[in-house]
Structure formats: C-alpha cells, structure tokens
Amino acid sequence: MALIAQGSKRLAIGDRVYDYGPGQFLVASVDLPITGHYTHARPDEPALGFGLILRPSAIASLVLEAGAGSAAAPPGLGVADASPQLLDAVVRMVRLVENPGDGDVLAPMIEREILWRLITGPLGQSVRQIGLADSSLTHVSRAVRHISQHYDKPFRVGELARSCGMSTSAFHRSFQAVTALSPIQFQKQIRLQKSRLLLLTGADDVATVGFRVGYDSTSQFSREYRRQFGLPPGRDAARMRTPVA
Hints:
The protein is of the alpha+beta class. Helices cover 53% and strands 15% of the residues. It has three domains: 2-129, Jelly Rolls, CATH 2.60.120; 136-181; 185-241, Homeodomain-like (Arc Repressor Mutant, subunit A). The chain has eleven helices and seven strands.
C-alpha cells in the first residue's frame, strides 16, 4: 500500500493507467511488472508518501471480522481516496519515528488499524483476498511468482492453470482480471524489463541479452523492445547510460 502526501504519480500495467496524488492511496495485491513515473515533483516540493507491506498473516486475522466478500478476482492494482480515519492512522504511524521507544508497542496496533481501514474501505476486496489462503487472487499470485522466476523459459498455460487448481478458462479470466495481461503478455513484460536492466549494465550485446531473457530471435526481441520502450535496445541502453547534463 502506498499513500501520497505530496506530489503525483502515474502507473501503468497493460492497458490500465492509474493516476494518484495527495490524499490518495494505491493497493498492489500482486507483484506486477508495472511502469511508472512522478507527474508532479520538484526540488522545492519533493514527492512525499507512506508505504506499508501488506502481510497476508496480519490481514487473515481481520478477514473473518470484515467478511470475505466476493470470490471474484479483483484487479491487482487499485487507487482510491483515503478516508480521514485512514489518514489519521497513517500520520500516527509516521510520528512514531520521533519516538522510537514507542514503536515496538504501538506500531503493531496502528498497523492493524490501518489494515482494518483498508479492508473496510473502497479497495477492501483486493486487501481481503491477500489474507485468504484459497482465493482466486492467491492462485493468480502463485502463477505470477512462477512466471517471474522462470521468465526465460516457455510454459503451457494449461499446465500452469492445473498447478493452480483451476480450469484453463477460469485461470485466463482470473489472470486477466488481476494483471490486465494474459499470461503470455505478462511473461513478455517481465522479459523486456529484465532485458532493459541487463542492457543498462553493458555486460552483453543485444543478441546475448535477448537470448538470456528467453528470445530465440534477435529481430523479434528488438521489435518487441522498441514497441515497449520506443527505441531499439542498443540505442535505448546508450541513452540510459548517457549522463544527464
């Protein structure tokens, strides 16, 4: 969960674009290959915000009290306005920095309060499913983890669906609902982002980087890279390595 106090940010995944600014928060219930940048931040007015890792174990203990809600897979990202109650809890958590001795006792209680505000708020369905051991979001998260760890290897969607205990059609629907991408598109996003990091180091040439992330064809790699980042791999890497004046 990330809440902005100052500045504005834009994130994108697939065809979904999320803008959020002061007093708004974002919940990411799955580790997604998102792209993003600040749309408002200046040296005299820097971006400021608060972030909290959403721990399934901490959420699970609150889910029974809030109710599990719908079984449908919610989007993996969501943006909403923070309620006054949520803002108040976040401010009190930040103020613990001024009194470190209070943190061990008060931080867990305030974290629980923040989670409760999230669970009962407009993005509550996404937060609830993080704490459910057998939710559709959990199954998609398992698939996301597998693809992310083995992004350079081909896979069969049917086999991945069976490993998640779902039919192929149900898996496709849930995966698309959560990530805004098909499983194959998701893998492509991971491959291209990994390749950009490899190119930035300058350790390998374009063909080698493409092969390392799973492409058999250098021309296909270059074509998809340019479509994603706007420049061919070599030129994009050179641009990123050029110091800003």
